[in-house]
Amino acid sequence: MNTKKYGPWIVALMIIAPFVYAALIFPQLPSEIPTHFNINGKADAWGGPSSIFLGPGIMGAVSVFTYILMTNLKTFDAKKYDQANDQLYGNFALLTVAFLSILSTIIIYSSTHADQINVGKLILPLVGLSFAGIGWYMPKFKQNYFVGFKLPWTLESETNWNETHKVASTYWIYGGLFQAVVTLILPMKFGLIGFMLATAVMVIVPAVFSYRMFKNGNQINNPN
Description:
- By secondary structure, this protein is mainly alpha-helical.
- The protein has two domains: 1-117, no CATH class; 118-224, no CATH class.
- It contains eight helices and two strands, in the order αββααααααα.
- The chain has a two-stranded antiparallel ribbon.
- α1 packs parallel to α4.
- The chain is flat and about 65 Å long.
- 34% of the residues are buried.
- The mean pLDDT is 86.
């Protein structure tokens, strides 16, 4: 798909959709709706009906910023990496906006069904799946200051960057899928613990690999 031509229209539709959903249910809202949920996924703060537009507003603003950044990465990136793939980053930007739009819709839904659902059971598996999606993209990312493992040694060495993101890809794909499963099937507290432990592994292991490769002169060890 030509993201340069159709991307802005698709982004606009995805940003508007949660607002339309919120506007449709607004007349039926009670005098107070949940605005925050605790670690157990239960509502612990409340606001007026108009607060239902707060989530879509925040997510919409983040979506616009993300899309502009990702589709103009070579303009904003001081390193000016010519090998940056415009189509790749355009697709990644659309997927990011889609994730934020779905997240916004879940927040709206949870505001009207707080007594029927555990919002964490909806949001955390979605986040896990988004991490897995990012992992799939990681080996395709070229050196830049905005996306990926932006460590001093990955930015200095293209080899280090590429190898680090190959390693990170595996951990993020399987780690994200693990997060989606455990947060869906386990009780909220245990699921959250599993989610945080997996996140730590997904961040620490590639970072340690990158540093050790840097200390080894950015050489790739191929054991015989």
